[in-house]
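Q: What would this chain look like folded?
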Amino acid sequence: MEGLHVVMLDAIDQNLFKGISVGLDANAVSLSHCFFADDALFLGEWGDDNVRNLICILNVSFCSKNGFFSVSLFRTLIDQRLVGIRPTIWCKYIPPTINFFLWRASLNRLPDKCNLADRGMVVDNLFCSSCSLLIEDFPHIFFDCTIATQGWAYISTWLQLDLPNWRHFDDMRNWIYSTQQNTNVAAIFEVVCYATMWALWRLRKRVYLRSEYF
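A: My prediction, written as structure tokens:
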């Protein structure tokens, strides 16, 4: 169920499935799915596209050729449906949750303060949750923040490589596969870089929640 939950969240984020709103205006709550121990309930707008996409998601999740959830089939579904959007990112050496995080990062759709403000959400301030020095956007969180630069410096020393000053997700990914001829070495570097990004994002979330509630 956890894998299907992650898939549904991403499908909603990409407008492949539209849930329903309960309540009025600012107090409205969006509902799309509820999972139980041995059952599931889906709630969404009544429409042909919504029904077709939900059927495709469920077919891919439970009716693959071997009877188990198939990541590759769901990736194919998303890549076919999202015309004009980059293909999904998948690294078989890391958990699914981190893969979906990386895909959203590559699209610059992570809920950092700048993106939240751009979507009309009320944000107390736009400064970085970790250092409070500059505006919190994707390049700052993962490459410019003092915590990020220290983290990449440790990684650089550990790998015994001079890492470039990346500005975007694609810069990092392209560097990994353009500088490493050996695919196994490139895969190791990929996992290390992705794990570093995930750790920086998790740290940012902990710091932000601590400042909100304590």
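The chain has two domains: 2-85, 113-213.
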